[in-house]
Design brief:
The protein is of the alpha/beta class. It has one domain (2-126): Rossmann fold (3-Layer(aba) Sandwich). The protein contains 5 helices and 5 strands; from the N terminus they run βαβαβαβαβα. It has helices at residues 11-24, 37-47, 63-73, 88-96, 109-164, and strands at residues 2-7, 28-34, 51-54, 78-83, 101-104. Helix 2 runs parallel beside helix 3 (63-73). The longest helix has 56 residues, at 109-164. GO terms for molecular function: DNA binding; protein-glutamate methylesterase activity.
Length: 172
Amino acid sequence: MLRILIADDEYLAIEAVKKIIKNNIEDANIVATASSGKEAIIKVNELSPDIAIMDIQMPGIDGLEAIRQIKASNPNILFIVLTAYDLFDYAKESIGLGAVEYLLKPIKKDQLLMAIDKASKIVKSKQIQNKWEYELKEKLTLVSPLLENQFITQHMYAFEDFFSKDNTGSIV
């Protein structure tokens, strides 16, 4: 299940995003909403969502600063920036912070769904990679003692052979 947080200071924007997600994405769970950057930071730290849909202009800590702070403690979370500001500097900074998409309000359903689908594929890919790495580490943990034992045994016999015979093959 894809875990999503929505952060926007506009109630109607949050409700619109929630409705689009609930009506179109079966495997998504909106774990929280936030109306400020500070609230988003707190809720992300508590709930560890996979994706945060963030507005830029919010009271107190803005969305970009919230992304910076969240990334510092939660580097795996993905961001979709949703804003009313069509400014190149905001888009550039958002992408520089690792945002998957930069979408403009009013939000278009298809654009939001495509952005969430893109982020979802990245999340699933990371989950598969993490599972594979975990399984590999588990296997290595099981095999390491056997390999170490075999290595030591082989080298003991080689060491013993080296010191137990002279050049003619006679035992010294």
